[in-house]
Every structure is written in C-alpha cells, then in structure tokens.
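HUMAN: Mind making up another protein with tokenized structure?

ASSISTANT:
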Amino acid sequence: MKLYKMTVDHFKGLEKLELSPHGSNITIRGKNGTYKSTVADAYAWCLTGKGFDGKTIDTQIKLRGEDGSTPNDGGVEHSVELVFKDDGGRQISFRRMFKEKWEKQRGTASRSFKGHTTDYSIDDVPMAKKEFERKVEEIFKGETFQLLSMPLHFMTNVKWQDRRKVLMTMCGDTPNEKIIDDNKSLEPLREELKTKDIADLRKIIQSKMKKNNEEVKSIPARIDELVGMKDGAADGDKKQLETDIKVLEKTLDERQAGLAAIKNGGRNAAIQQMNAEIEAKMTKFKAEMEADYNRKASEAERTINGCRSEIERLGYDIEHNQKDIERLETTAETADKLAAKLREEWNEVHAEPFPDNVSDTCPCCGQKLPAEKVESIRAAELQKFNLNKAERLKAIQEKGKNIMAGKNSDLSAVATLKTTNEEKQARIDELSKSLEEAQKMLDGVSKPEPEKHPEYITLKEQLDFNIHSMENDNEADKELKELEEQIATIRNEISDRQKKLAAIEQNEGIDARVDELKDREKTLGKMYSNLEAQLFLTEEFLRAKVRATEDNINSHFKYVRWKMFDQRINGALEECCEPLIDGVPFSDGLNKGSRMKAALDINNALSDYFGIVLPVIIDDCESYTSLPETKAQLIKLIADGNHDALSVEID
C-alpha cells in the first residue's frame, strides 16, 4: 500500500497542500514552523482521528488567534484526503472533514454556533464514523497503521509484554518435544510436559518445595512441644526399678506373712487380719484412681496437641489452595470473554462479501477488455479473496482453541483444588470433633480425691472402728507395731518406684514419637533434594527454549537481535522483549541512528507478518546520515533553514 496523493485544506494553520508522489518516496524540507510536523499529523488524523503521536488534536485543527484562543471561523472545512494504491494497482481514497456546525433558530434570521461535526468518506462514498473506522481497520488490517507508518511506535508506545506476544505469534514457538530431543538430559520432563505447561510444572514443584519446607520448619516446634510434655521427675534405670519393685513386693509378702502369724496368735488376730485386708484395699483403691487419672489426662493432652497441630497445617493448605482457585477462576472468566470476542470477529470475517470491483477497462490504454480476460481477472481476485478469508478464519479458530484449552486446564486445576480442599476440610471436621471430645475428656478428668469417695470412706470408717476396738485392749504387741511400720514403709517405697516407672514409660513413648519426627525430617530433606533437582531440570529446559526461541525470532530480522529472556542474579529466567543492535539495548545506550536502523528493520519484518506494507513517516530525518533499505514508501521530514516554506521533493 503506497500513498498516491495527499490533499490538505485549512489544517492546523496549513492552508493548502497537495502532494502527488504516485507511490514514490517523498522528502519534505523546511525550517522550523513551516508545518512539516503538521503534514505527519494530517496524514495520521485522516485515518485515525488522532495526531502522529497518537494524541487527540481536534482542538488544534482550527486557526488560533494571537491570544491563543480558537475563534469561530464560520464553517470553514478543515479536511485531509489520502489516496492510496495497493499492490494490485487499485486506488482507494479516504477523506475526513472537520467543520463548525451552525443552525438557524426558528423565528430568527441569524444562525447560531452549535459545536463541531466531522464527515467521513471512502472513495467519495459518505459514511458514518463507525463504518469508516471499520473499513479503515479492515483495509489496514487492524492496528497496523501506527505500527507500520510510525517506525518508532512499536518500541516506544507498545508495552514490552505486547511486543513479545506479537513476536511469538509472528515467529512461532519451538515445540517442547524438539527441545527435549535436542537435550537428552531433559528426558525426565517429557511425560510431564505432555499435560502441563512448563510454567505450571515449575509452580507445582515450587509449591511442593514450599509445603515441604513448611513441614520441615514445623518439626522442631512439634519436637519441643513433645519434649515439654516429658516428666522431669522421671529418673533412674527402668530395669533396676522393675527389679527393686519385685524385691520390695517379695519383702512385703514376708512382712505381711509375719504380721499375719503374730495376729493369728493373739486375741486381736482376726481384727488385725481384717485391718490388713482393709488397708490393702484402700491402698489399691488409691493407686488405681491415681493411675486412671494420669492415663486419661496424658491421653487427652496428647490428642489435643496432635489435633491442633494438624488442624493448623490443614487450614493453611486450604487458604493457599483457595487463593489459587480464585486466580484460576478469574483467568477462566477472562478466557470466556476473549472467546466471545473471537466468535464475533469470526462471524464478521465470515460475512465479508467479495468486493467485485474488477474493471472491464484497461488502465493503460482505456480500451475495453475482452470478457474472458475480465472473468479471468475476477476469478483470480475471488480466489485470492477466499484464500485470505480462509486463513483469517483459521487463525481465529486456532486462537479460540488455545484460549479454551487454557480455560479447560484452569478449570480442571480448580476442580482438583476444590476436591483437595473438601477432603482437607472433612479431615479438619473430624479432627475438630476429636479435639472437642478430648477437651471434654480433659475437662472432665479431675485430680483424684480418694478420701472423699464413698467406698474409700466406708473402708476408712471400718478401719478406724477396728483400731479403736483394738486400742481398748491393754495388751499391745510391740513387735506387731514394728512390722506394721515396716510394711507401711515398704508400700511407700513400692508406690514411689511405680510412679517413677510410669513416668519413664511415658517419656519413652514421647522419645519414640520424637524419633519418628526426626526420621520424617530426614525423609523430607531427601524429598526436597529431589524437588530441587526437578526444578533445576525445568530451568535447563527454559534455557534451552530461550536459545531456540531467540534463534527462531532473530532469523526474521536483518540487523536486530532480540533478547527474549533476562537472567536474574539468582540464576532464574525472567521474560523480557528487548531489541539489540551490535549488542547494545534499544532502551539503554543506543544512539539515534541505530534506533532508527532497528525500527526500520522491525518495520520490514512486521510488514511481512501482517502482509501489508504502508508508507513510513520519518520526522527529524536530518538527524540520520543514512537509512537501511526498506520495502516501504518513505515520507521524510527534514528541518532545513535554507527553506523558508515547505519544499517537496518526489523521488
């Protein structure tokens, strides 16, 4: 597409300008203030309604007064008309006209100012604004006007993320299988990458590493909690205590047998025998109550601590998964919107009619062409039109399939995460019930007071009665008292050792649990090392893909070399999109001439990709000593003090 003719009337102080380059390069010279930049603004305004820099200029179109105001001009037509000729030789004209709107009020002879209006036409056919914009977008293939007519627009006004998407779409991506085939060390990733994107795989591995690390961090606290539950009074050797208890029990049996023999020989033998039995029952009753209390309290505390720790861990997992669910659902909603837009775009393209505008007159001699020649030309144009439409429809379908595939993947991940959260919540509910029951058990367990128990009180009353009965007998047996004191001492010693033995056994159970946690800590360490190795493989894959991607993209450019990934200090790769000329980044240190060299090289590649070549306007062209070869028609604006008015040169 080349500029064939340009007509400017009353635009930003430029009263009249007519250019007829007929597709040739144009050089416009003039000193500052001679409306060189106005020519660029007029060119852009005609097609886009905005200036060459993409900003609105409607308030600048009319002539300004000396005080800077914009007085009414009575309805002067401010217009720009552009005539292009495409590669097939077909001409097409675009015209945009801006003027004041004056209306005569009923009952008055004068007109009043009612604002401004803009008229549009293509090939002299008037049309509404939306239709005009749709036609312009159709002919110039979307937003290619600014990309291809303004050489620096792609690098200065387009975000690097959008530049990257254009390049990746333009040059294609290297398949994962090809990268793995060329790097056998990456073979372990092949199966994973059949169902997952490399970015998703890295997120999964990093998530597992994070969970692994969190569990490892929680183990010392859990160990400290268990250690804090140990009985500090537990001392002595377990086997020695068991031996001592057996010896003491044997001694107790002997003393009790001697006591029984003495009692059987006296008048109070029956009462003493009865007292011994009562005391034995009281001691056993007391010991059983204390043992039952210690067992229930310890069991309840262990259950409470274990449930709380597990509930806290599961709650964190659910919260983390919920954030991922919200993010993936938002992405899926965005995919639906994008898919809807693509369907509209597909319907619009599918409904486009064939513009049957084949002339039956020879453009060279003006004579009528034979009917078969006209039909041949029409058939070729129709075939070209249908092929172009089919390619566009196919591209839209492929884009829609990719969007929906991404959406399905996200929704599948959401379903998996929700199922996981439901399982974890169910487990939390189970643990909460267990925690509640354990707490009730602990709250319901009170320190034993056998002295207040009816059975113990009955035994004590019976013993007191027997003792009182025996005290009334003046015949005291000194040996009997000594044996009773010995028996009481032995029983105390047995009870003391039994308590120590119970404490030791409790501590042994805690130590066993601590050992289990330490073993788990070692297992987690090995798992973390394996995950690190997997993450390293993904980084190696990304580096290989970087090389393949950049080589593929750079093959489409003559001078520019693209840097598509940047390496962080920690070695990780981060996406970017920076063109280099001789190793110097466009945005950092590249001189003005090299920037234009890069811009025109990019312009050539984009023109090939979009399938359309548009005229390129280069402002401040006096700054460039030479320009690289380009397929486009050049409109060069040069500041030249030797030209008091605009001077137009057509190659």
